[in-house]
Design brief:
The protein is of the alpha+beta class. The chain folds into two domains: about 100 residues, Phosphorylase Kinase, domain 1 (2-Layer Sandwich), CATH 3.30.200; about 200 residues, Transferase(Phosphotransferase) domain 1 (Transferase(Phosphotransferase), domain 1, Orthogonal Bundle). It is about 40% helix and about 10% strand. It has a five-stranded antiparallel beta sheet with strand order 1-2-3-5-4. Strands 6-8-9 form a three-stranded antiparallel beta sheet, covered by helices on one side.
Length: about 325
């Protein structure tokens, strides 16, 4: 998340259906169907079909989150990947622009990609996905982001911790146990992070299974909203699920196909659990940052309950133990 982000969810109250339609029509695109809201809390995203029978997705960016330069860099990166024949959703260019503005809202129009959910336990799909991630990273190494964020303990950990301490969202009865274990986890994560040299390449940034659609032609990658610079393993570790043996099998398949196109430094596997720990903390802070947005109390009511925070304390205790275990490895016994 951008450090400039101040939880500006209330601005979405002005994003009425009429304004959305007017914004789309300002591009010379005329919806024929109603607007189908897609599953997105960070931005506002809608699917529709226009009068020439083409399906589109329109994405309204959360106000004050990204600068124009950051959004444009995301768009340019996705278009460059498409030019390399990587199946990435990239915005439509209209009148020479991919980023548009209407009454204070920044928005982009995308072609609608049909597909079904990516199956993380389907090894054939995992193999094909690894091949394309390798192609993404092979291209990514050829340039740098100038405006996007960098994956780091400061961005994901320190800033999240500071926000939560000031937010008042952690129940008073759990403040001491929650922050005690979180600080221990963050300190251990930093220790591993700074001890382990790692790559700094352009990334998708948030490559979890929900951002992959399975199409008749293979995987399709969507939502580069969190494109950033960081270690290659950031775009790989969220593909791994199950127990340790299952993760090792998935990792073998993923990396074998990945390395058909891009070499991977296996020492970066040591960063998986620190990245997972920081993602846990970042998620807690993300919900806190967004609490002024009416969509969040409505869709995440459990966030305000003590039980949720008790579960988080338990989860961080378990993660602290995992951080002390040997990192995942493709070499037996290590």
């Amino acid at each position: 998340m951008s450090t400039a982000d101040k939880g500006s969810g209330f601005h979405y109250q002005a994003l009425t259906p009429d304004l959305i339609l007017d914004a789309i029509e300002s591009l010379g695109i005329y919806p024929e169907t109603g607007l189908l809201a897609l599953n997105s809390y960070e931005n506002r995203v809608y699917q529709f079909r226009c009068d020439n029978n083409v399906r589109y997705v329109v994405k309204f960016y959360r106000p004050e989150r990204w600068t124009d330069e950051q959004i444009q860099e995301e768009h340019d990166f996705s278009q460059a990947l498409v030019d390399e024949e990587v199946p990435v959703a990239t915005p439509v260019i209209i009148d020479g622009r991919s980023l548009h503005q209407y009454q204070g809202f920044k928005f982009a129009l995308f072609p609608s990609i049909g597909g079904r959910s990516f199956e993380v336990d389907n090894l054939d799909q995992l193999e094909a996905t690894g091949r394309f991630i390798g192609r993404i990273h092979q291209f990514s190494k050829q340039g740098k982001f100038a405006h996007r964020d960098i994956v780091s303990p400061k961005l994901l950990g320190d800033e999240s911790l500071s926000w939560l301490k000031e937010s008042g969202h952690v129940p008073s009865s759990l403040v001491t146990p929650y922050f005690t274990i979180v600080e221990q986890v963050l300190e251990k994560s930093k220790e591993i992070w700074f001890r382990q040299p790692h790559s700094q390449i352009r990334l998708h940034g948030d490559l979890h299974p929900g951002n992959i659609l399975w199409t008749p032609d293979g995987p399709g990658f969507v939502d580069l909203d969190d494109a950033r610079t960081g270690p290659a393993v950031q775009d790989l570790w969220m593909m791994l699920t199950g127990d340790r043996a299952q993760k090792v099998l998935q990792l073998e398949i993923l990396l074998e196909s990945y390395e058909e196109f891009c070499e991977f430094d296996s020492s970066e596997l040591k960063l998986i659990e620190p990245l997972r720990a920081m993602r846990m903390l970042h998620y807690n802070a993300w919900l806190s940052r967004r609490w002024e947005d009416p969509a969040f109390p409505m869709n995440f009511p459990w966030y305000a309950e003590e039980r949720y925070w008790e579960q988080q304390i338990l989860g961080f205790k378990e993660q602290l133990a995992v951080l002390d275990e040997p990192a995942l490895s493709l070499i037996p016994g290590y």
